[in-house]
């Protein structure tokens, strides 16, 4: 991947059209027509041996005849010719090509090589990038480039749209042009064989011309790159996603469409939420989201006021708002008194505001003005239903004038719904032209509002400080991995509760007491001494692992004859499998507690995103991705809490308010422990825990089934999100004998990190931030502590005070460009702990980390006044230079050649 190499995709200065044509209904003519009519200022060079000129533009017989190297080439030929064309373009020096042809992976050349693989090999050899194949092309309105086969152009705007489907592209384009909504870029990915969502998100997330991003996704290829890029972009601007394949049949269709891997829809949804993106369910919602994004301001809050000339539509809007989890604003006494002066006696006197059916343009305008001047709402929704007593367009005009004249217009969002068709059409057109969001139905307007609310909530959740896991909760990876390896060596692919006890205990997870007995008499004695209730199982490798029978369990909850029960089980086993060898019986003390609640937790292995954790209530027809809330590991206490809230909110989990039922902290702790177990042990493919008994603070795993991988993967390929790299923790001793821990930063570090930042002297803060600045806000500190370990690294140095509290002494951090070419670092050491070697220790650790990460360069900048920092950097091998114009010292290290430089 290279952001530098796709620069030419977004800012080409010249374009070549390979396979340009004058023939009707030929792709080469359609591309030329769109290029010539869009206002692109650079040279457009048709390449074809068939024509001297194409649409009046001088043509060139072949690529080698081109007068200049094109930044961008559009290949409009058949699939069979594409590999050779790409090779010649790459050799000629072209940087990016768009491939229109489809079906390349299914076709071969005369030597049996598939055309797509061959094309990628040629492009990679010469460093050329590819968009497509099967791409409709792209439109970049800011530079007047329409390099697409779209039926129409796009007007300039601030929204970027990226789609794997050409048909969705043309549909969205047609609708947007009708609404007067513009785009910063409009890109058809096609099969995304090279340039993919992640690189485009990285570019668009930094693009000043783009304020919001819309995605249409069939499938994801690079899960970790995609989530890292999406999370980085979503911190700065909203990303809306429409994802096909909600059903099993839809998944298969999506796989055929793009050739991607079919993942589970619920896991996709969990991934989108984790990255801070917002999912919309269909094109209608997508259009509504585009509408709201194009014209809205950032929400300050979630309070909505609805004003209408009819009670029915207002109630529909209010119902939709509450169902979607929104809030109706409360009208203040002052607002009610003011409205009493202008509205009929029969008005609703509450929110929603029913202004009565004869409301004319003056009543609408005065009501809206009062609401905009109050402090009662963050958003106002204006509804209108057709009426013989008032003119629709006249009312729309008065609303527009009122908004434009009001000084508070930039503090509020105003949404409109003009219901109906013929009578409402002109009013909606008037709003669109004025840049005011308008919708066909009350429910559609509310859904658009809730998209903005969900984005705001997601951003707040991403900034939430998680609780720390108690220090006394174990996480002994070595014990768990040893036991799992032993199971695999025995040929086991399934581990049941009694075999998983020690694995689960290594992570502080409570299971039921288990005894192994060799015969029926011993079972009777153990059961009687254990007390009831107990579960009696047969242990037989032949039975459990070599037949279709996966276990026989009998729960004994009274003074039943255990001997009779045991014999009954054994007889039943032999009826099912006469060859089964009964190795013994298992007695388990059931942890049933009156007033407790049963839930179910599973870990599934998604083909796209890998391990995913599911929380719900279970049942005989349990489908974890239909009946559970889903989240991706790693989880911390904040993310686990969000998962539990999602389960409760969607009724996947119901709090039955039992005496010893659900305890939020206990549930979150269990989910976090399970997450850590899954992260540490790639041997585990899936886990099903059914039931889990929740009895207040006590959580007990009653029945556990682990399925193991035959060939465990490492975490790099398995997990969608890079977990906390515990292996980078290091204990060191400073010059003064102080012992410090160097480790990557955690989200839980935010309070201590804020304290550390506030401890810096004014002089140190001036040097650190290149000038005076105010104290860090919570939002800023969340960005510094909740980092993506795949994209950036921050090491902190901590020590333990005499009071047993952790104290942060210093920090060094660096963020890397998406190409892994250069990391830029910054460092600070607590003012009262300088001069004891802490800065050197931190910077050495960062150098080692990025060198092992195969990053090419490490750079940093400091002020002229900070000569100590420059001296330290020079002593560690940095090249130090002075920028006299900017009054900065630049520190640069070639990590690839660091050892050679040092030895030289």
From TrEMBL:
It comes from the Bacteria. Residues 740-896 form the N-acetyltransferase domain. Keywords: ATP-binding, Ligase, Nucleotide-binding. The keyword ATP-binding applies. PROSITE patterns: GNAT. GO terms for molecular function: acyltransferase activity, transferring groups other than amino-acyl groups; ATP binding; ligase activity. The keyword Signal does not apply. InterPro entries: Acyl-CoA_Synth/Transferase (IPR051538), Acyl_CoA_acyltransferase (IPR016181), ATP_grasp_subdomain_1 (IPR013815), CoA-bd (IPR003781), GNAT_dom (IPR000182), NAD(P)-bd_dom_sf (IPR036291), Succ_CoA_lig_flav_dom (IPR032875), Succinyl-CoA_synth-like (IPR016102). In the N-terminal section; belongs to the acetate CoA ligase alpha subunit family. This is Acetate--CoA ligase family protein.
């Amino acid at each position: 991947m290279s952001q530098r190499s796709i620069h030419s995709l977004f800012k080409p200065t010249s374009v070549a059209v390979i396979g340009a044509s004058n023939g009707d209904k030929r792709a080469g003519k359609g591309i030329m027509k769109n290029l010539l009519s869009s206002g692109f200022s650079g040279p457009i060079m048709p390449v074809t041996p068939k024509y001297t000129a194409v649409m009046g533009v001088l043509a060139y017989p072949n690529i080698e005849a081109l007068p200049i190297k094109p930044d961008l080439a559009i290949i409009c030929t058949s699939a069979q010719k594409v590999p050779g064309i790409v090779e010649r373009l790459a050799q000629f020096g072209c940087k990016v090509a768009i491939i229109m042809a489809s079906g390349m992976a299914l076709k071969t050349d005369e030597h049996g090589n598939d055309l797509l693989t061959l094309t990628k090999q040629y492009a990679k050899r010469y460093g050329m990038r590819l968009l497509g194949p099967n791409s409709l092309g792209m439109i970049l309105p800011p530079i007047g480039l329409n390099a697409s086969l779209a039926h129409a152009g796009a007007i300039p705007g601030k929204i970027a749209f990226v789609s794997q489907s050409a048909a969705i592209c043309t549909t969205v384009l047609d609708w947007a042009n009708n609404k007067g909504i513009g785009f910063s870029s409009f890109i058809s990915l096609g099969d995304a064989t090279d340039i993919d969502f992640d690189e485009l998100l990285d570019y668009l997330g930094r693009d000043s011309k783009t304020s919001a991003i819309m995605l249409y996704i069939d499938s994801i290829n690079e899960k970790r790159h995609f989530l890292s890029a999406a999370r980085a972009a979503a911190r700065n601007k909203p990303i809306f996603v429409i994802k096909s394949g909600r059903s099993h049949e839809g998944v298969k269709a999506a796989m055929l469409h793009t050739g991607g891997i079919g993942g589970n829809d619920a896991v996709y949804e969990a991934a989108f939420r984790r990255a801070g993106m917002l999912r919309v369910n269909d094109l209608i919602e997508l259009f509504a989201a585009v509408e709201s994004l194009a014209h809205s301001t950032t929400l300050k809050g979630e309070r909505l006021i609805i004003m209408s000339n009819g009670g029915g539509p207002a109630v529909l809007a209010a119902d939709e708002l509450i169902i979607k989890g929104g809030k109706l604003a409360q009208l203040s006494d002052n607002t009610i008194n003011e409205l009493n002066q202008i509205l009929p006696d029969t008005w609703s006197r509450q929110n929603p505001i029913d202004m009565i059916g004869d409301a004319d343009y003056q009543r609408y305008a005065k009501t809206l003005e009062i609401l905009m001047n109050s402090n009662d709402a963050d958003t106002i929704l204006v509804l209108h239903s057709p009426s013989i007593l008032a003119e629709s367009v006249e009312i729309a005009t008065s609303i527009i004038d009122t908004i434009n004249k009001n000084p508070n217009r930039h503090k509020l969002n105003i949404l409109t719904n003009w219901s109906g068709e013929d009578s409402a059409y002109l009013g909606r057109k008037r709003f669109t032209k004025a840049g005011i969001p308008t919708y066909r139905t009350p429910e559609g307007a509310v859904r658009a509002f809730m998209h903005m609310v969900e984005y705001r909530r997601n951003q707040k959740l991403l900034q939430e400080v998680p609780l720390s896991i108690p220090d006394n909760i174990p996480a002994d990876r070595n014990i768990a991995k040893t036991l799992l390896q032993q199971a695999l060596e025995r040929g086991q692919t399934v581990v049941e509760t009694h075999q998983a006890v020690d694995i689960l205990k290594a992570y502080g997870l409570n299971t039921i007491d288990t005894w192994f007995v060799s015969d029926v008499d011993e079972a009777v004695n153990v059961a009687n001494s254990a007390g009831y209730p107990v579960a009696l199982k047969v242990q037989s490798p032949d039975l459990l692992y070599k037949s279709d029978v996966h276990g026989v369990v009998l729960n004994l909850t009274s003074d039943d004859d255990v001997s009779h029960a045991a014999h009954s089980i054994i007889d039943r086993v032999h009826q099912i499998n006469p060859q089964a060898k009964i190795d013994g019986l298992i007695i388990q003390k059931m942890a049933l507690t009156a007033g407790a609640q049963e839930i179910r937790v599973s870990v599934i292995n998604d083909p796209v995103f890998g391990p995913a954790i599911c929380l719900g209530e279970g049942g005989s027809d349990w489908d974890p991705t239909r009946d559970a809330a889903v989240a991706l590991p790693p989880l911390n206490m904040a993310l686990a809490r969000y998962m539990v809230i999602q389960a409760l909110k969607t009724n996947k989990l119901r709090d039955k308010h039992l005496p010893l039922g659900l305890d939020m902290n206990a549930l979150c702790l269990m989910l976090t422990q399970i997450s850590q177990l899954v992260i540490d042990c790639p041997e585990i493919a899936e886990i099903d825990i059914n039931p889990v008994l929740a009895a207040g603070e006590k959580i007990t795993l009653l029945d556990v089934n682990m399925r193991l991988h035959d060939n465990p993967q490492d975490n790099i390929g398995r997990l969608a999100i890079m977990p906390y790299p515990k292996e980078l923790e290091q204990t060191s001793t400073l010059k003064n004998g102080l012992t410090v821990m160097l480790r990557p930063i955690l989200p839980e570090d935010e309070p201590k990190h804020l304290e550390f930042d506030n401890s810096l002297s004014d002089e140190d803060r001036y040097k650190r931030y290149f000038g005076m600045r105010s104290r860090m806000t919570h939002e800023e500190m969340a960005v510094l502590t909740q980092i993506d370990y795949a994209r950036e690294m921050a090491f902190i140095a901590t020590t333990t005070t005499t009071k047993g509290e952790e104290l942060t002494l210093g920090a060094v951090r660096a963020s890397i460009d998406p190409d892994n070419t250069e990391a830029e670092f910054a460092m600070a050491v607590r003012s009262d702990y300088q001069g004891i070697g802490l800065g050197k220790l931190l910077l050495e650790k960062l150098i080692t980390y990025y060198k092992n990460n195969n990053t090419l360069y490490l750079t940093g900048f400091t002020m002229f006044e900070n000569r100590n920092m420059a001296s330290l950097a020079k002593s560690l091998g940095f090249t130090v230079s002075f920028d006299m114009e900017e009054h900065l010292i630049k520190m640069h290290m070639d990590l690839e050649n660091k050892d050679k430089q040092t030895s030289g």
